[in-house]
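Our preliminary data section would be incomplete without showing what the modeling component actually yields. Below, a chain of 211 amino acids is followed by its predicted structure, encoded as tokens that our downstream tools consume directly.
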Amino acid sequence: MARYIGPVCKLCRREGEKLYLKGERCFTPKCAIEKRNQPPGQHGASRTFRRKASDYGIQLREKQKARRIYGVLERQFRRYYADAARRSGVTGAALLQYLESRLDNVVYRLGFAGSRKQARQLISHGHFTVNGKKVSVASYMVKPGDVVAVAQGSRTSPYFAELEKELKSARTPGWLNVNAQQLSGSVLNLPSREQIDTPLKENLIIEFYSR
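Predicted structure:
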């Protein structure tokens, strides 16, 4: 599947807020939003003063923001929405559960990667297993009870050798459990809306696709 390979800082500037796509760099003064918080492009500065956005424009931007945070292309994102709409309960919460259940997001949430983009790269290179089997597909959907671990052959690499110390101080969401010594983590349950700290207004996304 195709993926965005351009400068991710442009995506944050387009949305006018930090999407934390570069991990730790986003918390430093080097962050592009800190330097120039305006849309990218030759006429970026003038866009800041445009008239108020329409309801459609607001809904579109929220949908685009969600796609960019989780690194999902439009066709796949629309499929997640369709699956969420078929489930009982609140569609917006179900949509976020699908996005949070992606393997790349779980690897990131467990603290094994500094960003979802880095998590996707590590997964594609075969550095992780799910229930003991190597998985190289970032969109793989984990389920409650699954165990995500660093592959045995990857544990001697410099990156993962230093990771154990960082994991001991990492903050893990309540729906996940990390074992720093074993370089593994388990999925306790699907996250509730209260356990998802992604700054999204999912009701706007549902309204966008319900037009």
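The chain has three domains: 1-51, 55-101+198-211, 102-187. The two ends are 27 Å apart (CA to CA). Preliminary results of this kind motivate Aim 1 of the renewal.
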